Amino acid sequence: MLEVVNLTARYGRAQILNGVTLTLAQHEVVALLGRNGAGKTTTMKCIMGLVEKKAGEIRYDGRSLMKLPPHMICRVGLGYVPEERRIFPDLTVEENLEVGRRPPRADAPEWTEDHLFELFPNLAERRRNLGKQLSGGEQQMLTIARTLMGNPRAVLLDEPSEGIAPVIVEQMAKVITELKNEGLSVLLSEQNLHFARAVSDRAIIIEKGALRFEGSFAELDDRPEISQQYLAV
Amino acid sequence: MGFYFAQLLTGLANASSLFLIACGLSIIFGVTRIVNFAHGSFYMVGAYLAYTLVTTLPAGIFGFWFSVIAAALIVGVVGLIIEVTILRRIYHAPELFQLVATFGVVLIFQDGVLAIWGAEDLLGPRAPGLDRAVRIMGEPIPEYDLALILIGPLVLAGIWLLFHRTRWGVLVRAATQDRDMVDALGVNQAWLFSGVFVLGAALAGLGGALQIPREAASLQMDLSVIGEAFVVVVIGGMGSVAGAFVAAVLISVLNAFAILIFPQISIVLPFVVMAVVLIVRPYGLFGKPGSEHGGAAEPEQPLRLMSSQGAMVLAALVFALALSPAVVSEFSSILLVDVMVATLFAVSLHFMMGLGGMVSFGHAAYFGVGAYAAAMTVSFLGFGMLPAMAAGPLAAAAAALFFGWFCVRLSGVYLAMLTLAAAQILWGVVFQWQDVTGGDDGILGVWPPEWASDDRVFFYVAFVACIGGIWLLRRVAHAPFGYGLRGIRDSELRAEALGMDVKLHQWMGFALAGAFAGLAGAVFAFSKGSVFPDALSIAQSVDGLMMVLLGGIHALAGPIFGAGVFVLIEDWVSRLDYWRFIFGAIILVVVLLAPDGVAGGVERLLRVLGLRRGDAA
Ligand SMILES: Nc1ncnc2c1ncn2[C@@H]1O[C@H](COP(=O)(O)OP(=O)(O)OP(=O)(O)O)[C@@H](O)[C@H]1O
Ligand SMILES: [Mg+2]
């Protein structure tokens, strides 16, 4: 469904991605692993059209996304959940969700505000609070809920477990499993190997903007030197 | 008592008009980050359109209000056309470059309105049904003023509902907080921005249209209102509609009473209030520091140093300039002095803007102080030209040290606005203090002494002062002090971490830029033989800004190109009819063809022609 071939990207003079290749099939959860600064976020931003200087190929259902602006990429059915909880701080929870709302699509599950409040009960209680008044974990849930309001077919999820309490990480894992059960595909960027293993079907490891490993978690376990070298374990 | 109450009501009625203009400006800035100089033009066009509609349609209550609304809507459509054809193409240009484009629009509108409606002021009829005065506590109050007092809060409420109760409003507010995120959530911001621009323009048009029963529509309306509108926006906090309302009330009511006590203060009062508010609250009453994801996200480009080829071209130009009096006519050598003065002025402004990252909307203050100091040294103290030329930069440096101390505590547009306030306050003082500065009549008879009275000799005096000044500033730019300034511009935090005293460094940079602007002013005074308050006017500041931005803020050669092109084109077109229109159109063409300024455009042209190897960007 989503294919990235030999993607390169740079910020100014600094080359950040040196040929990332990955695929994401329907109903699949793929973990994109790598250390700090490996290029996970940059890969996702490139797919979403948020990095200007990029080359290579990004295809979605066979259609190239390379030249599309972010809002058109969103409209083909790709949802993006940024890292660092980029909610709209001065909008209420409900308004944050409203920004993400898009018409339902035939090929993806439809999410309503009520359904999302069931999935994230904490948010329901705080629906009239401003984004900046939420706790870190609540903000993280809000970014996910906001993206789901767009009824995506696939979601790019950037480090959902970063900097939040263990209880909430557990809740996050449930949510990802729920998304998969609903029929969504998820590309999950992670540094937390345990969390990634719990929710993903397979793993991709990048380092310095290039692909280092691709395969199942079992294969990864068979080659401990890989995790040693490219992941902080 | 009744009299004071009446005065209060007059103030509130004025506040409503001011609010209508200012809130549109604030909304546009909040969302698009464009400082829209053309906002006063929308106001003016609204007034003229309403005049035409009211006087053509059958008189009556319905006709009047229909005309007002229709005028506002037409101005909205005009705004849409400008946004779609011009501004939309340059959102990604360096910050403030859009300002140049809106200035081009101002010029075009000035001549457009002149061509359509003529030069005479047009006073509209009174508003039917509201054409009398009611007595409140014994004082006559125009009914129309009371209507205005109601309209202001009604519009405020309407805007609030629009922004909080409609999906469109929620999207707009989200876009002011994080543009990229809104884009990634599937919202096409191009149309969001257009909508905001249309709304802002229509509000300005409404403000102008509502003004016609109170004030004649005139060709000066645009620039006379824009300064005050900026002040209101800044005091309220840029992007805050409620803030604009509070600020409009504050300014108008203060003004209504201040003129009773001290009539002269009226023209500077708004700027004094703004200066005080900014010193106490650096982001205005209701403003917030700009969001990290709010502006155009691209990192500042590094400042380009000149290539050896460029330096050679420049050296050749200077050499040709030095020899020019031998070959060109006297008239041209006077024009070349103008070019040199403008170039030094622009280079000094670029020093603080491009190198120091401190944008100034009021650099003319130091140009003017330099010019006046030089003129007064001659006319009061009886000194000769050379001491006077030294006095100019010294006085300008002193003024820049004083105002700069406050300004460097702010950043971005707020800093720019405080420089504007400083310039307007100085302008007000010069304009009103008849006994010392001659007020409107200026200071005459500031001629060079006998030995330099020949235009060609004076050319060399100006040459040494201006080219010397430019050379010195460039030396400073390449010295550790200049690197320090650039370091601060690129990352204040990093510079601080390296142990630099950031504020002190910026303060000194500000003062240095002021001193050299003062030198330009001193040369200017002797080249014209006189000084008028215009030397400190907003127009003079804007000219400097245009030179720097048109030239290209990211190149050290930018202001040199910019000033040369600006003065020569202005000199050429100002002999034509409707020269503002032509000049404005030229500016727009440059803006659209070379969004990185003339220097960038020339460089790209060279690259296309294969004269220079570009880096792959
Ligand atoms: N806007 C930017 N300008 C310049 N360099 C950047 C920018 N954003 C990221 N980088 C650099 O690109 C590299 C990759 O960053 P990226 O954010 O993609 O890494 P990441 O794998 O997501 O790391 P983390 O796990 O810390 O989120 C880093 O070295 C980073 O410093
Ligand atoms: Mg990251």
Automatic annotation (TrEMBL), chain A:
Transmembrane segments: none annotated. PANTHER family: ABC TRANSPORTER ATP-BINDING PROTEIN, HIGH-AFFINITY BRANCHED-CHAIN AMINO ACID TRANSPORT ATP-BINDING PROTEIN LIVF. Keywords: Amino-acid transport, ATP-binding, Nucleotide-binding, Transport. InterPro entries: AAA+_ATPase (IPR003593), ABC_transporter-like_ATP-bd (IPR003439), ABC_transporter-like_CS (IPR017871), BCAA_Transport_ATP-bd_LivF (IPR052156), P-loop_NTPase (IPR027417). Residues 2-233 form the ABC transporter domain. Belongs to the ABC transporter superfamily. This is ABC transporter ATP-binding protein. GO terms for molecular function: ATP binding; ATP hydrolysis activity; branched-chain amino acid transmembrane transporter activity. GO terms for biological process: L-amino acid transport.
From TrEMBL, chain B:
InterPro entries: ABC_transp_permease, BCAA_transport_permease, LivM-like. Keywords: Amino-acid transport, Cell membrane, Membrane, Transmembrane, Transmembrane helix, Transport. It is a multi-pass membrane protein. GO terms for molecular function: branched-chain amino acid transmembrane transporter activity. It is found in: Cell membrane. It comes from the Bacteria. The keyword Transmembrane applies. Pfam families: BPD_transp_2. GO terms for biological process: amino acid transport. The chain crosses the membrane at residues 12-31, 37-54, 61-87, 99-123, 144-163, 190-210, 230-251, 257-280, 311-328, 389-408, 413-433, 457-473, 507-526, 546-569, 581-602. One of its GO terms (cellular component) is plasma membrane. Its main location: membrane. Belongs to the binding-protein-dependent transport system permease family. LivHM subfamily. This is ABC transporter permease. It comes from Marimonas arenosa.
